[in-house]
């Protein structure tokens, strides 16, 4: 296949070329370098596919590592150079799409898997060599009586020429013979080694079964055993080996010697430890990363009866502002300093600190009593962040919000614990930040329910789960029904009927309020048309009008005016049949750009109502510049009128607002009317229309029709 310059195949071949140039000098292959490059090309293609695959497949990377051994890349230096190439160039040449951080993390996991595959294949190859050597040794010993000289020569050739260490000892543990590879591994002479006994080679890291297996072998109870074993060299360094010990018997089957075969695995072990460290620690701060933290958390949650855990979930307050103003390099230095301070807070047994990503950190404490310990840990963290941090000559004040989860082991999964801590942390941040909060199961349930509603909103609109109820607007002078306010409801499959206070804020945060509001507007206008067609003359005041609420998000949407015009034209409804309600708080400090769409709608004949008047700054002077024709007085002004006598101060306030509104040619509507006395008092004060449970609760459109007919026949 011809590789297009700069294309994926071309980049893949360039990666294979770099790989072959790095590794070829330390291979024992008889191929030329171009031939060796062609052998590496399919391995590079498999690595590229594994890097970009949807799911991570460690088996594919292990297979690549094993294939290196098959290609005669058995020198440990070949593995080191391969991993260096993969670390430096795989993402660069084969990761053109995707998140760089995710690709680098996946590349590190691929390297770990490759090293494991390489080690496994090399171990299998070594064991095969060991078996061949052992068989040769046995064969040599077995034919001593027939051809001692020939077999001795054959055995000596294998013994001295082997790449692995070989030693022979008697059953008392006296070392009789060693080959050159073994003396080089230990860094001592053959004479020094032959003067020692097997039992002297113990090490503190020996597995418990190591010397039990040895005793069974010298007693003739087993033929061989295989263990991973460490030895001390004379200079104090540690030699790690794969050790196979076999029992050699004479012609009569009597145990006579023990044969030890050793493969030096020190470099490979160090490499695995390094890869393990890189895979489980954050590259920037050196703290344990998310995967390592989850391992520790899962272990803590499975600790058994009587054990508890405490977790602090920390998010820095205002960290984004540091990145945006000083740059990401300064933000990274800030994170490093924060990590150092947090690390100094978790020094007791059972405590650890990890970085989850970005500016999010976690601290974990475990033990039989973590109720007080986790509070103290959170306090130490807050104190550690108190002192300013110097970055690029600037003194930065660092604050953080912490969510704390504490409880017994065995009751929750790591994901549930972290979710609760995350929710609690955001509760602390919403309360102003620079504080910590304790997890509250009820608050968690509310947040989870709210999240479920948020994710279900788009599909709910598509499935038609929303419906509209209408609450009549009644004229206080003659009691006639003048129209209705459209109030959207959600018929949720699990939670039943939900009021707008449960889902409108969620729709505003997600942007779904725009299509939802458009749907409410169109359905309400269509209903107004039906009212006007069927019962237009049913009320003494003429056709009914529909009031529809506009959220602040809809108010700033560029398609508001055009959507409204299109809906009115499609339904054939005149603009004067529609009143759009905007809350007072949405118009506080509004500039001309924000008011422009409302002015255009008002010029068309659409009424604009200022809803919830009195809940904002109640800036009466500001009313003159707003394109409103209706003032909806908030129920908080009229609640005292449900009692007799009414508060005279409230009466004066309402009377003043009504007088001012009428002087500005505004009509006044009152919300929350619940008693006849309240309605009568508002009528005396000069209010124009009212709505509330005294007249009717929100209901289906037929309910409004019935009220209108009653009014018309009264």
TrEMBL record:
TM ranges: none
Coiled coil: none
PAC domain mapped to chain residues: 225-277
Domain of life: Bacteria
Residue ranges of domain GGDEF in the record: 307-441
Stored InterPro entries: Biofilm_reg_signaling, EAL_dom, EAL_sf, GGDEF_dom, Nucleotide_cyclase, PAC, PAS, PAS-assoc_C
Domain named EAL: residues: 450-712
Segments forming domain PAS: 151-221
NCBIfam families attached to this UniProt entry: GGDEF, sensory_box
PANTHER family for this protein: BIOFILM ARCHITECTURE MAINTENANCE PROTEIN MBAA, DIGUANYLATE CYCLASE DGCP
Record's protein name: Cyclic Di-GMP phosphodiesterase RmdA
Organism of provenance: Streptomyces plicatus
Phylogenetic classification of the source organism: Bacteria, Bacillati, Actinomycetota, Actinomycetes, Kitasatosporales
């Amino acid at each position: 296949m011809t590789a297009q310059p700069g294309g994926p195949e071309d980049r893949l071949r360039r990666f294979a070329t770099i790989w072959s140039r790095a590794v070829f000098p330390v291979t024992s292959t008889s191929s030329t370098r171009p031939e060796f490059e062609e052998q590496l090309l399919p391995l590079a293609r498999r690595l590229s596919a594994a890097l970009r695959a949807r799911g991570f497949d460690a088996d594919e990377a292990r297979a690549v590592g094993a294939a290196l051994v098959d290609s005669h890349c058995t020198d440990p230096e070949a593995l080191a150079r391969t991993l260096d190439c993969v670390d430096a160039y795989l993402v660069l040449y084969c990761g053109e799409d995707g998140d760089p951080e995710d690709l680098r993390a996946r590349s590190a996991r691929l390297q770990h898997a490759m090293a494991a595959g390489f080690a496994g294949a090399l171990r299998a190859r070594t064991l095969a060599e060991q078996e061949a050597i052992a068989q040769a040794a046995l064969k040599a010993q077995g034919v001593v009586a027939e051809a001692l000289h020939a077999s001795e020569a054959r055995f000596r050739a294998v013994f001295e020429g082997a790449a692995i260490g070989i030693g022979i000892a008697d059953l008392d543990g006296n070392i009789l013979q060693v080959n050159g590879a073994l003396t080089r591994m230990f860094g001592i002479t053959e004479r020094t080694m032959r003067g020692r006994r097997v039992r002297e080679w113990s090490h503190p890291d020996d597995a418990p079964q190591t010397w039990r297996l040895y005793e069974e072998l010298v007693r003739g109870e087993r033929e061989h055993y295989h263990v991973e074993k460490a030895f001390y060299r004379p200079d104090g360094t540690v030699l790690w080996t794969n050790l196979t010990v076999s029992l050699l018997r004479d012609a009569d089957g009597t145990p006579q010697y023990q044969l030890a075969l050793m493969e030096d695995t020190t470099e490979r072990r160090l490499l695995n430890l390094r890869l393990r460290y890189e895979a489980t620690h954050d590259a920037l701060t050196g703290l344990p990363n998310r995967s390592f933290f989850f391992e520790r958390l899962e272990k803590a949650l499975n600790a058994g009866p009587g054990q508890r855990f405490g977790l602090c979930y920390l998010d820095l307050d205002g960290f984004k502002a540091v990145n945006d103003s000083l740059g990401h390099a300064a933000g990274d230095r800030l994170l490093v300093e924060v990590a150092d301070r947090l690390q100094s807070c978790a020094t007791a047994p059972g405590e650890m600190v990890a970085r989850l990503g970005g500016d999010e950190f976690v601290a974990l404490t475990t033990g039989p009593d973590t109720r007080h310990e986790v509070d103290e840990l959170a306090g130490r963290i807050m104190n550690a962040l108190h002192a300013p941090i110097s970055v690029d000559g600037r003194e930065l004040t660092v604050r953080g919000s912490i969510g704390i989860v504490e409880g017994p082991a065995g009751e929750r999964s790591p994901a549930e614990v972290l979710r609760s801590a995350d929710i609690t942390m955001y509760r602390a941040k919403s309360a102003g930040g620079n504080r910590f909060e304790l997890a509250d199961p009820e608050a968690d349930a509310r947040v989870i329910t709210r999240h479920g509603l948020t994710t279900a909103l788009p599909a709910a609109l598509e499935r038609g789960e929303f419906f509209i109820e209408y609450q009549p607007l009644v004229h206080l002078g003659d009691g006639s029904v003048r129209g209705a306010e459209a109030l959207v409801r959600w018929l949720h499959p699990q939670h039943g009927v939900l009021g707008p206070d449960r889902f409108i804020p969620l729709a505003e945060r997600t942007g779904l309020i725009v299509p939802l509001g458009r749907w409410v507007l169109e359905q309400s206008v269509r209903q107004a048309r039906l009212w006007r067609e069927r019962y237009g003359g049913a009320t003494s005041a003429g056709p009914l009008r529909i009031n529809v609420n506009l959220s602040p998000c809809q108010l700033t949407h560029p398609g508001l005016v055009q959507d409204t015009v299109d809906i009115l034209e499609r339904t054939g409804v005149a603009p004067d049949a529609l009143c759009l309600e905007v809350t007072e708080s949405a118009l506080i400090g509004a500039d001309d750009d924000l008011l422009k769409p409302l002015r255009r709608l008002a010029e068309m004949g659409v009424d604009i109502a200022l809803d919830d008047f009195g809940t904002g700054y109640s800036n009466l002077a500001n009313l003159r510049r707003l394109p409103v024709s209706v003032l909806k007085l908030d129920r908080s002004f009229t609640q005292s009128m449900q009692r007799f006598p009414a508060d005279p101060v409230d009466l004066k306030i309402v009377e003043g607002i009504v007088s001012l509104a009428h002087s500005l040619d505004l009509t006044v509507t009152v919300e929350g009317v619940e008693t006849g006395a309240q309605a009568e008092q508002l009528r005396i004060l000069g209010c124009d229309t009212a709505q509330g449970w005294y007249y009717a609760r929100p209901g289906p459109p037929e309910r409004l029709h019935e009220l209108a007919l009653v009014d018309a026949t009264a």
